[in-house]
Amino acid sequence: MRALAFLASRFVAGERPQDAVRVGERLKARGINASFDELGEDVHDRAAAARAMRSACALLRMIPEGVERNISIKMSSMGQEISRELCVENVSQILEAARETGGFVRLDMEGSKLTENTISVFHELRKRYDNVGIVLQAYLHRTPDDVKEAVRRKDRVRLCKGAYSEAPEVAIQEMAGIRKAYTACAHELLANGNYPAIATHDEELVADTIAHTRAAGIGPERFEFQMLYGLRPKRWDELVAEGYRMRVYVPFGTHWIPYFYRRLRERRENVMFVLRSLFR
Ligand code: FDA
Question: Would you call 224 helix, strand, or coil by DSSP?
């Protein structure tokens, strides 16, 4: 277990919020912002959801002045699968804490069985809060419509490919198709959206964003790139040096195993990193 924890430490900032905040301070010194995420999903009792809510509020208050108070949360850890009302109440409390501290909260997107509910809870919260954004996954067939709606509502969107196993009826399966869908959604958000986040490590998509925004006269202050802690750290610095805004998603906490496995499943290079470390 210790060895696994050591390997996961490339992708996870540590077990305690202080570990994540320290990483955030180091990133800030390099001109990079962070979004902090306390790992934990699929909470099935009210007490655990309340604990997750309190810990997100405490995290917002703990992030020091000078580091952006930006956190990402998963609705399933806020009681989404227990009751909608409970989830709205918990996330509202976090948004109140974010309001007090000048913070911003991003609602991560999980598997497709939660998509509709997550978007509808988000719409409800948006009536009362500006400091909240959503994630849309380019691989879902529904996403072009969700992007149009987000543009219409001036919602802040993080666009990613999507990390969960989904059926062909729900999501595009092959990479070429996912990239094509990503590009179309990204262009729409970059042209008409509210400060979109282009969240990918895929150089083809990063390069397309740079070329497209230059050609369309969309300034680098109108969007940001986002990548995950541990993936392509040199590219973060290059993008900052080229004048782009960069945010790194910094996960931390004791529930790191599902997150770590998702990173391994995604990319052969990540598995190679783990194997190299094991045989070193
Ligand atoms: P992908 O893994 O598809 O790789 C494609 C290509 O990118 C590779 O062939 C290579 O060229 C290049 N590349 C990738 N990694 C590299 C590396 N380490 N070094 C060099 N080149 C590399 N998902 C979700 O379902 N819900 C969510 O809320 C979020 N949130 C989120 C936030 C942020 C900030 C990010 C970056 C991602 C997410 N995701 C997510 C995860 C996302 O959906 C997706 O699973 C991963 O980002 C992997 O897809 P990519 O497009 O990054 O590259």
Answer: strand
Average pLDDT of the residues in 241-269: 85
Residue-range definition of the domain harbouring residue 101: 2-279
The CATH number given to whatever domain includes residue 87 is 3.20.20.220
Protein residue with its CA nearest to atom 11 in ligand 1: 202
Contact 147, 186 (CB under 8 A): no
Give the CA distances from residue 120 to residues 10, 106, 132, in Å, rounded to whole numbers and listed in that order.
34, 15, 13
If one counts the domains in the chain, the total is 1
Active site residue 155: no
Residue of 41, 74, 202, 262 to mutate, ligand 1, most atoms within 8 A of C-beta: 202
Supply the pTM of this predicted model. 0.93
237 tagged catalytic: no
Between CA 180 and CA 205, with CA 158 as vertex, the angle to 5 degrees is 35
pLDDT in tens, 162-190: 988 899 999 999 999 999 999 999 999 99
**Nearest residue to 33 via CA among 90, 71, 85, 6:** 71
Ligand 1 mean position to 89 CA, how many Å? 31
Distance, CA of 109 to CA of 156 (rounded, Å): 13
pLDDT computed for residue 280 by the predictor = 47
Of the candidates 69, 106, 156, 158, the residue annotated as catalytic is: 158
